[in-house]
Amino acid sequence: MLVQFQKFILNGLKIMANMHDAIIIVTGGIFQIPAVEEAKKLKLKTIVTDGNKNAVCSDLADQFYNIDIYNIPKHLDLIKKIKNNFNIKGVFTEGSEATITVAELAKFLNLKGISPESAKNCKDKIMTRKILEKHKIPIPKWRQVTKKSIMFEAKKLGFPIIVKSSNNSGSRGSTKLCDNNGLLTAYDLAKKHSTNSKVLIEELLDGDEQSVEILFDHKKKCTFLNIVDRYFSEGKWSIELGHVNPTKLNQKTKKELFELTKKSANSMKINFGVFKADTIITKNGIKILEVTPRLSGGFDSQKTTPISSGRNFIRAAMRLSLNMPLEKNDLVQKKKKFSAVWTVLPNSGKIKAIKGIDIAKRMKGIKEIIIMKEPNQKIPKIIDNTKRPAYVISEANSYNLALNTAIKAASKIHFMVEKS
User: pLDDT tens, 175-192?
Assistant: First the structure.
């Protein structure tokens, strides 16, 4: 019996020795390229999932699986399938709303992560607002509505308002309105983009907007990471035109934003990993617009933070998910530059040609131009942030120069489209 037991143990050790350390990265789009690259630097096998079979990271990952990022049962099936081949050390996402999936998988694997309940509360805008209100966090006035009640509630709340789906991101399903014209159509759009069919309306506030990122380490110690200034389009659609990294706000206001974000995280029962808040500074003070337990998308943590400061928040967040100690170098500012992102918003239609890219590339201060569409592909009507087809990224020694350079370069790029 003893001999058999020893053989059993030895066989188990041999199997473990042949297993590769790996990380599961949920979502494999363009924002997740740095995550795959950082994982490889850490000598990890990368297992990437995405609902798009042609996702950018499908060719970069060691293994790619075409699974919808919100499909938790299929992800659990995947883990059961691969668990004998890989020693899964962490589950991760950044720049993606796959936070519930990540939390559930980490819990299943007994790995570091936030609770699924907290992830769900952040994803559900209605639950988020109820929790923040309970903890006296300043937020815009809002109402949950049905198709029957939206007219009454909008009138009671007062225009202008924004109609939102309760659990989507990237401005999907959002419509800004100055009066009740188009209110029912806006409701239908929001409900269409809401997986739980819930819709809310919110007062549309006037003010400068920001994205604020903080990080909690293994000991729940909070580090204030970064703030960027965000710019949005006018009109009925809430399109983010771009951002400048870092913010031009003074130290006092930055501290207020960081502290309010930390308070919001505590309210949502999150004290591990990254936490991000979208904020607005109004004449009546700072308000929290949205919160999420992940790093930003929009080439913020992916591009403009490394360019402007030399910091690597993606690697820091990934190390936490792997239960590895933070490296101070990832969070230390190594340079003082400014970086801006600006998007190109063409008309809808079939692309015949894209002009001006080379001109924009040659401009002083342009770091990168990202084109996500090709000739003969179609550009849909751009009504949310997920449909933006091109971005320009700049670097400069001043805030205004970074912003103006990116805007000017973006203006040089023209999508020649044939209306369909």
Answer: 999 999 999 999 999 999
